[in-house]
Amino acid sequence: MSIDSLPITLIIPGVLGLVIFVLLYAGVVLPTIWSRHPERRKAAHCTLDMLLKARRGLRRIGR
After folding, report:
1. Are 32 and 43 in contact (CB under 8 A)?
2. pLDDT score of 19
3. Are 63 and 54 in contact (CB under 8 A)?
4. What is the model's pLDDT at position 34?
5. By mean pLDDT, which of 2-6, 7-11, 13-17 is the weakest?
6. What does the angle CA 27 – CA 32 – CA 35 come to, to the nearest 5 degrees?
7. Cα gap 63→61, rounded to integer Å
């Protein structure tokens, strides 16, 4: 199935989801791993922890 055959209503949310994922990954996950500054690593780790806990909470609500 080529992208030309998909309706635009499926393409736009998929692209937006991908962009949000990449921004979160670059802004939160990578600093958790690669930052030289312990304060930045700790802050990124706390942010990542909050995001993952919120995600787990949303999954419970959806059941």
Report:
1. no
2. 93
3. no
4. 84
5. 2-6
6. 90
7. 6
Taken in order 9, 14, 17, 22, the sign of the CA dihedral is: negative
Q: Name, in order, each residue with C-beta under 8 angstroms of 22's C-beta and a sequence gap of 6 or more.
A: none
* pTM of the predicted model over 0.90: no
Q: Is the pLDDT of residue 30 over 60?
A: yes
- What is the per-residue DSSP string for 1-47? --GGGS-HHHHHHHHHHHHHHHHHIIIIIHHHHH-SSHHHHHHHHHH
Distance, CA of 62 to CA of 1 (rounded, Å): 30
In 10 A of CB 44, how many CB atoms? Answer: 20
Confidence category of residue 44, pLDDT binned at 50, 70, 90: confident
